[in-house]
Amino acid sequence: PSSSPDLALAQAQKILREAFGHREFRPPQDAIVTRLIGGGDALVLMPTGGGKSLCYQIPALARPGTAIVISPLIALMDDQVQALQRRGIAAAALHSAANAPDAIEHRLRAGALRILYCAPERLLQERMLRLLRELSISLFAIDEAHCVAQWGHHFRPEYRQLGRLRALFPGVPRIALTASADLASRAEIQQSLALGNAQVFVQSFDRPNIRYRIEQGSGAREALAEFLRRQRGAGIVYCLSRRKVEETASWLQSVGYRAQPYHAGLPADQRSAHQIDFLSGKIQIMVATIAFGMGIDKADVRFVAHLNLPKSIEAYYQETGRAGRDGKPAEAWMHYSLQDLLLLRQMIQQSGASSEQRCAEEERLQAMLDLTEEVGCRRQKLLGYFGEKLDQPCGNCDNCLHAPPLWDASEAAQMALSAAYRSGQRCGVQHLIDILIGRDTPRVRQAQHHRLQVFGIGRRLPPRDWQQVFRHLLARGHLQPHPEGSGLILHASSRPILRKEQRIWLRSGTANTCSPEPGRRS
Ligand code: ADP
Ligand code: ZN
User: Fold this and answer.
1) How many angstroms separate the alpha carbon of residue 380 from the centre of ligand 2?
2) Which pLDDT tens digit goes with each residue over 22-41?
3) Cα atoms in the Cβ-side hemisphere of radius 13 Å centred on 219
4) If you average pLDDT over every residue of the chain, what do you get?
5) CA 272, CA 257: separation in Å to the nearest integer?
6) Tens digits of per-residue pLDDT, 449-464?
7) What pLDDT is stored for residue 514 in this prediction?
8) In angstroms, what is the span from residue 203 Cα to ligand 1's centroid?
9) Cβ–Cβ under 8 Å, residues 334 and 266
10) Which atom of ligand 1 is nearest to the CA of 26?
11) Among all ligands shown, which has an atom nearest to the Cα of 390?
12) Which residues line ligand 1 (CB under 6 A)?
């Protein structure tokens, strides 16, 4: 290895050009490879497509010995190995489905491999560790490092043992890489992989050409129609269910759009035909479940519209990230309703996952909701979630472009909570609104709720403002669906609101709700 960073960088640049055919590093690739070549550890956070592979492949070629790359996905390993072999680099993969593992081990022993991809369970076999200790190892790269996060979607128990490498291979640099890690999982990665001395590199997750817009309320179709009137280029409309995909696609066709559905329930030939037509521009709008998009290489997608709430910020970021890959202006637009939220909460509660996992899912959903409720710059909030600080408001999101006028909903929130409490925490939103505005419906009568003190105390506010208040209380978790029953119960976090210690500001005049919420009785 080179002794000075300048020499290391020069060497890395030479490899970048000669072995990989690229002209320049994309920062912070240069700093990362220099660090590794110099023998230091690194933790790399980079969005998908940012260029993580080169961060370890180049130091692997610059340092003597064999580099070991730990990856959880067999398909990914095989892809990478083939790409390296095409460039004439001696690489192989050892995993449960590997061809001729003995021959690979033989080459490894002979020092004939520059890069060995290895599944974590394979690496952690004592025999394998002993073998590696006899060899010259240039570095360890731990790909998809978020797999150590215990309550994450991708948890792999073996990943948590990789911290042992530090003691077993002192002096061998280690690099961990991931495209998805909020601040909490980042700390978990550093701790369980024993990367206390690692330098952390974060490539910005910012996509400045994407304009973020989030609307809430009912009347999703009208809102979508309004949004689409301003769109010229190609786009994706995401829906939560297959049925909604089908309905939305036929509706768009009926109003004259070149739109087609895409979901896992369609016959394969239809799916691929729609995909080809979308790539070629024959179809303008693909209406899809989130099954669509992975591995779709279309740089000029001009908009991504969500007709439902994604279940996490990671998902929102991934999905909206399919817009504007060409760097030209693009739109990420979302419209969601109270029903989405209740549905997602229900799905989490009934998922059959462990209670810790459900809690983690709840937290992820909560972060997504905080983004939708944000009254300041969306981009600052979004990037903040990935631990990135944007000093100035972005100027390219709905809130920056039109500072939302706000109204003080503190008193209304208090009334809403009281109504839920006094009616015995057994009622749903619509019933509570009926109580608040003093509607004498048969159900109200039957439950004797017209006798409550809170009956009619909110008649000064229109029902749609009440919808908004409840949406906020639900979004923030102050009100929660009863775990078994059907009503809404108060969470401890609602106390400061009831005690008038916490003020609540909501945006005024946003809800484009002329039409009633679906399923609402009038
Ligand atoms: P990630 O693993 O972060 O998703 P990859 O390592 O697969 O990203 O790289 C994404 C693409 O970017 C690849 O096609 C790769 O060849 C290309 N790439 C990476 N770094 C550079 C660079 N410095 N110059 C040009 N292309 C690059
Ligand atoms: Zn902004």
Assistant:
1) 7
2) 999 988 999 999 999 999 99
3) 15
4) 90
5) 20
6) 999 999 999 999 999 8
7) 30
8) 13
9) no
10) 23
11) 2
12) 22, 24-26, 29, 46, 48-54
- Which of 13, 54, 201 is the best mutation target for the ligand 1 pocket, counting ligand atoms within 8 Å of the beta carbon and taking the most? 54
Angle at 189 between CA 186 and CA 193, to 5 degrees: 155
High-pLDDT (> 70) share of the chain, %: 96
Q: Which ligand is nearest to the CA of 12?
A: 1
Which H or E run contains 475? Answer: helix 463-475
Q: What are phi and psi of 309, to 5 degrees?
A: -90, 125
Whether pLDDT at 515 is above 80: no
The number of the ligand nearest the C-alpha atom of 86 reads 1
- Enter the tokens of residue 298: 């279309």
**Cα distance between residue 447 and residue 435, in whole Å:** 11
Q: 403 C-alpha vs ligand 2 centroid, how far in Å?
A: 10
Q: Distance, CA 55 to ligand 1 centroid (Å)?
A: 10
Determine the distance separating the centroid of ligand 2 and the alpha carbon of 382, expressed in angstroms: 10
Q: Which ligand is nearest to the CA of 49?
A: 1
3-state secondary structure of 313: helix
Nearest CA to ligand 1 atom 16: 51
Q: How many CB atoms lie under 10 A from the CB of residue 86? A: 8
- pLDDT, tens only, 216-266: 888 899 999 999 999 999 999 999 899 999 999 999 999 999 999 999 999
If residue 44 lies in a helix (H) or strand (E), which one and from where to where? strand 42-45
Tell me phi and psi for residue 301, to 5 degrees.
-70, 120
Residue 510 has pLDDT above 60, yes or no: no
- Cα–Cα dist 398/389, whole Å: 19
Residue ID of nearest Cα to ligand 1 atom 13: 51
Cα of 393 vs centre of ligand 2, distance in Å, is 5
Residue 177: band (very low, low, confident or very high) from pLDDT cuts 50, 70, 90: very high
Output the six-digit token pair for 289.
Answer: 């479940």
CB crowding 294-311: b at 16 or more within 10 Å, else e: eeeebeebbbbbbbbbbb
Residue 18 has pLDDT above 50, yes or no: yes
How far is it, in rounded angstroms, from Cα 432 to Cα 425?
10
**pLDDT tens digit string along 73-96?**
888 899 899 999 999 999 999 998
Structure tokens at 143: 């790909």
Residue nearest to atom 19 of ligand 1 (CA): 51
pLDDT band with cut points at 50, 70 and 90 for residue 509? low
